Structures are given as structure tokens and as C-alpha cells.
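Q: Sequence in, structure out?
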Amino acid sequence: MSVDLLCMGEPMLEFNMQPVGADGRRLYLEGHGGDTSNAAIAAARQGARVGYITAIGADAAGDSFVDLWQREGVDASTVIQRADRPTAVYFVTHSAAGHAFLHYRAGSAAAGFGPADVPAAAIQTAQMLYASGISQGISDSAADAVFAAIDVARAGGVAVAYDTNYRPRLWPPRRAAAIIHAAIACADYALPSLDDVTTLTGIADPDAALDFYLRLGPKVVVLKMGAAGAYVATASWRQRVAAFAVRHVDATGAGDTFCGSFLARILDGDDPLAATRYAGVAAALKCTGYGAVAPIPRAAEVLQAMQAADDRQPPQ
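A: Exactly. Output:
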């Protein structure tokens, strides 16, 4: 299968805390997660032809991902299953402060992925490669593998997109910043969050954040700002996009849905501003249900929500 978008990283089996029942027990809904896998599924649900690069365990969790990608139309021919390493797992809990994560990923199959495992031929036939800070933060070999994949992409004229997605439990800010920013310097599309930018650079002002990442070299930077929406920029213009209002239930995977949806629309020919507006709606709709993957909307739902919002606008 020839794909437009190849995503690279670590999938993780998800257990998402549900509202406490009448008996007081805390129950968890099994699902799927992992930032770049979530983005791959989001892109596929928007109509893009998507593939995934990773290693998973030859275990029940790994088999579950193979089934998921098959159902979602994500090409898994570049996925390696290993009997000697497990598929990673994480738990999501919810409180008034938001959602929190507990990860069990040490020694995962994805963390054992290295440069020799990079599927160069598949990357060379894609239109875009996508990775993240988590893709590189899980191990030294995984970081090197992403750089190797980026080198293949750039040599073949394949676009590169990158999400900072910093996780402090994986690595300290100074090391993360050095590696993440070296990768972004090779990217065409940078998709940082303002929280990540502040941690990695000390910059809290959105315009200064855009300036910093544009200077690294990407032609488009989209700054994700949560409830404040998004801020998209090129060297010649920049535009804020307000957040799309919904009733939030669970924000797990919202940023991943944004990235996957944005890249799908770019690949379909949208300009960066239109793609950012679309992605913001998709990410908001994802937050109306529990879990990283199940609530990710399909294109028809996003377009319907956008049309309904337009219909509510007063005539000019």
C-alpha cells in the first residue's frame, strides 16, 4: 500500500478511568493510545492514506493494535512485532485539575527500535513523515531512528512534520530541547504546544514562540494553546484561530487529533490557516468522549460541526 503520511513512534495500550460507580469502585475503559498512533488514526479518519512505523510486542496488546490499525485503514506493513519486548501500557486518571497519566513503558518494543529498523523504501514513497518528542524521548536508539528517518525523508524530497510533545518523565528539559529542536530544524511543519515551548525555552509569549520556531527553519509553525486556540504562522504572516467550544469530557489525545487532522488537510491541499481551523474543530470534538482514540471524529462530523458554527454566525 502506498501512503501519503507515515507516522513514527510508540503505541500504548490505554486504560482510561471512568466515573466512579455507585459501589465506589474505580473502573478503567480499555482503549488505545500513543501520540503518533493517535495522530495516524485521526489523519486516516479525515481521509488521508496513512501508515505507521514502530515496534510492538508479540503479545495481546500488540495484536490489539494490529487489529485497530486494520480497522482504521492504517497500513501496518512497516510495524515490527517482537517476542522479546512488550507493548507499552498507560493509565489515565481524571480530577478537577484535568487528566493525568501513569505510564509503563520501560523496555518496550518501541523503545528498542533503532536506525537499522527504519523502513527507508516506505519513507521514500510517502509524501510526509511525522514524529514527535515522545518518539525520540523513549530511548537513545529511538531518537537516533527518528533522525535516520528524517534523513531518508529529506534526501527523497519527503516533507517532515514534528510535534514537540515533551514528557518530563522521559528526559530533562535541556536534553529534550537539544534533540527536539535539532529535529524541528529539519522539519517543514512544526507543531509545538505553548506549554512545551515554555518548558523547553523559557518563552511564554506566543509571538516570541512563533519567532523562535520559525528561526529554526520550518516553513509553517502551528502553536497549540489549548483553551486559547491555536496560532499559525509562516515567515510572512501569522493568524490566531479561536478554540471551538464544546462540552469537554476528556482531553486525552486532543493534541494528537489536532496534528493528524492538520496534516491530513495539508496533504489534501488546504492552506495552513484552513488546515488549522479544521484541526481545531476536530480536536475539540475528540474531547467530548473518553479515551484517546474512540472519540476522534471523522471528516463528516468535523465538516458538519464547522457548517453548524458558520450557520450560527450573524450575517455581515
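The chain has one domain: 5-9+36-82+114-310.
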